[in-house]
Amino acid sequence: MSQTAGHGADGDKxxxxxxxxxxGAVGIVFGDIGTSPIxxxxxxxAGHHPLALDTLHLMGVVSLIxxxxxxxxxxxxxxxxxxxxxRGQGGTLALVALISQKIGGTNRGWIAIMLGVFATALFYxxxxxxxxxxVLSAVEGLTTVEARMAPFVxxxxxxxxxxxxxxxxxxxxxxxxxxxPIMLTYFTTLAVLGLIHIVDNPGVLAxxxxxxxxxxxxxxxxxxxxxxxSVVLAVTGAEALYSDMGHxxxxxxxxxxxxxxxxxxxxxxxxxxxxxxxxxxxxxxEAIKNPFFVMASESFRLPLVLLATCATFIASQAVITGAxxxxxxxxxxxxxxxxxxxHTSETQHGQIYIPFVNWTLMIAVILLVLTFRNSxxxxxxxxxxxxxxxxxxxxxxxxxxxxxxxxxxxMALPLVGLFxxxxxxxxxxxxxxxxxxxxxxxxxxxxxxTLLTTWAxxxxxxxxRMSEVALPIAIFAKxxxxxxxxxxxxxxxxxxxxxxxxxxxxxxxxxxKVLHERVVILTVQIAGxxxxxxxxxxxxxxxxxxxxxxxxxxxxxxxxxxxxxxAETGECGGMFDMMQTSFFLSRxxxxxxxxxxxxxxxxxxxxxxxxNSATAMEFFRLPxxxxxxxxxxxxx
Length: 636
Hints:
Structural class: alpha/beta
Oligomer: single chain
Radius of gyration: 28 Å
Largest sheet: 6 strands, mixed
Strand content: 5-15%
Shape: elongated
């Protein structure tokens, strides 16, 4: 009897913990998709392809929103893709790493990796547009309170956005405690506003029937297809749920989505439709310019604008944090050069700040606001990057089903076919946006894809060239005994490859004619998993005569702190004393050549990226007063 009671208590604790995590997730993860009601419904009717404000179109659009949210967010991402975690971590790069473990060396594996890299590249375009369109759409709500505020919308939005990026360096630990209460209030407000108008016109709930969406397509084929380009704005942020799974876990995210966020969003969308249906033609035409804020009474409208602005600020913060996290993963997986990464919290490991990414995003966001001028114009640029990434996720999902999970064809094909139909339709509907601004995220994505693939390819070529001329460690150990004077202390030579002798070691003997009593050739290897257990961190091989080959293993979400790792082992002839240890680094200067491998312009681009990357000293957290750099030239 007591065992049963105890077990039940444990279960209650588990449920309680998941609910608390779900509340935290509402404050961070759901901001992007949560701020979509501010502009998504409006853009479908008053955007670049306006629709008539009649029952057919209002019911058809809200039915499309419901089924898009159900199929894409609830089924594809929350139900299925969240099961495709890489040791608890989600996101496109984590999914690619998971697939690569199974089929990485095959042609299908190479295609999957390239698709994942392109989805990551598109993410950077999306992360520039999201803060701009979200904050601008919220601040535009001021014009529903006072029309004379229109000239101040852009200055206020820019002030908020610049403040947001300046805040990143200090971290968000302090104000982050306010995120959950604000977002809980925001989502509750969405639900209450929607319910008020649904009560006035409960017939709008009939749009849950997909026949209204079908009827919309039967009547207005081309216009209905173009409307998908705006309807998809209601599900932007779905990929963020999958990417942030590692911070909260799939259970809390599912509780937060199905139990709170999705009902609140749907009530608001249905409420917006009900409100427009209840208005006279002239009033409806005016209200559709900003239906989200018109839902509130005039006395409550200003507080709603302030609440929505806070919500978009938080949503933008989540996108920027996501950009930092994705960049860190890409660095560890070898797609991005080493960048300076600062930790903004002593207690929370995931809170990082990458200056280069932060300032690049800020400049891009400012230019977007000044160029497009309003959220409606920005909405034309928004969507194509998101739908492109969703379509890629569907492709990767097909590989996952068949190659990793080994599903039968009769199980996989219907689901994959459904997602290809839905995601493909949304992507195709966004293609007409390209001339109106959709080119921007594609342009940013193309640049990012070129940089990511150039770095990955150049890095491989450089390692191959160096390994071709590398001296085997066994031969070096025999010859070094008589060719150099042994001196006290420990020398650690950082090596990018786990085979051969690093050039810094050869140059040190050539120029200084000495060899330390203890020599460690150290390689840091990043695994295709987010975390490596500390017990599996070290791989140590004694070569002989005080020379050791050490390989440190890290996951792509872990921080590579070499001195901290070395302090944990004494297997290389004793413990490491940093005051008696010197770190020797090789600094390669690349020379572009016409050797097979890459085009000369890409070789020059790779050389420029290498010159401007953070030093190994910063990246591996080496003590600055114990580092010696020795240069060498490499032709690729």
